[in-house]
Amino acid sequence: FSVAAYKALIINGSRPTSPNYEPNLKAGINYGGWGAVNLTNSLPGALGNQSVHVALVDGGTNYALATGDVIPFTVTLKPEAANLPLRVTLVWTDPAGNPGASVKLVNDLNLAVFDPATTNTYYGNDFGGVKPWTTARETNDLTRFDRVNNVERTIIETPGTNLTIFVSARQVNVNALKLHPNAVVQDFALV
């Protein structure tokens, strides 16, 4: 696994640390980051927790994005999972930024989860509504994309059964893959 994959697995399995938990990145105070590590949620099969299911995409050379690229992933949930929370976490190892820059993010990827049944889109790190759920938005509300973090997460309260997860590259400025020496691309991990 890549470093981004381990980080995505741990964050995706984390749970709130207190009633004050605030996942909204724009909130004045963050009482618990992404929450407490819970390995039985992060690695359910390995630790015997059969009530949690995890799927992992570890990008590497198979899933590398250049500026403007979009990769869709179709997810079909079992009917019994349609009314249970769905967590989707995108992580990438961002190249080192300039310490003097006002925005430290070098390569900007984005996460969006689309529900065709409701036509709602859930944008990574858009936790402006009821805690801890990601806010359902209209599909073309592009102002909701996170422009400063290399971790993006959605927590959908009732996801339905069919979803499309989109990972897109808004801007890739520096090549993050030595295996692609003639391209400017960024790999990622998705859980």
Task: Compose a concise summary of this entry.
With 191 residues, this protein is mainly β. It has helices at 3-13, 39-42, 44-47, and strands at 57-58, 64-65, 70-76, 86-91, 108-115, 120-123, 137-138, 151-156, 162-171, 186-187, 189-190.
Describe the protein.
The chain is mainly beta and 191 residues long. It has three helices and eleven strands; from the N terminus they run αααβββββββββββ. It has helices at 3-13, 39-42, 44-47; strands spanning 57-58, 64-65, 70-76, 86-91, 108-115, 120-123, 137-138, 151-156, 162-171, 186-187, 189-190. Strands 3-9-5-6-7 form a five-stranded antiparallel beta sheet, with no helix packed on it. A four-stranded antiparallel beta sheet has the order 1-11-4-8, covered by helices on one side. A two-stranded antiparallel ribbon has the order 2-10. The longest helix has 11 residues, at 3-13. The radius of gyration is 16 Å and the shape is globular. The model has no long low-confidence stretch (mean pLDDT 85).
Element layout with pairings:
Blueprint: H1 3-13, H2 39-42, H3 44-47, E1 57-58, E2 64-65, E3 70-76, E4 86-91, E5 108-115, E6 120-123, E7 137-138, E8 151-156, E9 162-171, E10 186-187, E11 189-190
Antiparallel strand pairs: 1-11, 2-10, 3-9, 4-8, 4-11, 5-6, 5-9, 6-7
Query: Which H/E pattern describes the elements?
Result: HHHEEEEEEEEEEE
- In the sheet with the most strands, the strands line up as 3-9-5-6-7
SS class: mainly beta
Give the strand tally.
11
* Rg calc: 16 Å
